[in-house]
Amino acid sequence: xxxxxxxxxxxxxxxxxxxxxxxxxxxxxxxxxxxxxxxxxxxxxxxxxxxxxxxxxxxxxxxxxxxxxxxxxxxxxxxxxxxxxxxxxxxxxxxxxxxxxxxxxxxxxxxxxxxxxxxxxxxxxxxxxxxxxxxxxxxxxxxxxxxxxxxxxxxxxxxxxxxxxxxxxxxxxxxxxxxxxxxxxxxxxxxxxxxxxxxxxxxxx
Length: 205
What we know:
By secondary structure, this protein is mostly helical. The chain has helices spanning 9-31, 37-61, 71-102, 120-148, 154-158, 161-188, 197-204, and strands at 107-110, 113-116, 193-195. Strands 2-1-3 form a 3-stranded mixed sheet. Mean pLDDT is 81; it is low at 200-205.
């Protein structure tokens, strides 16, 4: 259940503003290569904590105590948790795009493999993507539970698992799509670094 005393929409706005400011700071520092392991962990945990509070607050704001199964409260919690994280993914993706355009050597196609240099900006992006989609799936599962209500049956009960399964599928797919997008951007700008396995092995010899 959401925090009962947090039913003010202004709190949601301020929490979203805090998330946006933190992610922009993370993105700017990551673009300039100034984010280290401890800093990336701090940004990630702070944004995650604010997202949890945002989900609790928005869920309480939309909560309807007059109904037995509260669909709107569950939907508010799901949106409050997942949407800020998914928006953070888009913001960090923009910064990472400009980062690899500035430093194309960080993404190299070697044969059939894609070699990506270690980037705390990319790790934060992946963490927010994983968390946003998973929390969104779990949140939508609660919405489905509220919609199902007292109805029984295996097929009806199994519908609760569908959003979670879809979230795992999206996590696997979107991660691939992100890298495909980065490769497409570099190729379109003529900056894609491609190494032939044979030529690289000959250089080593």
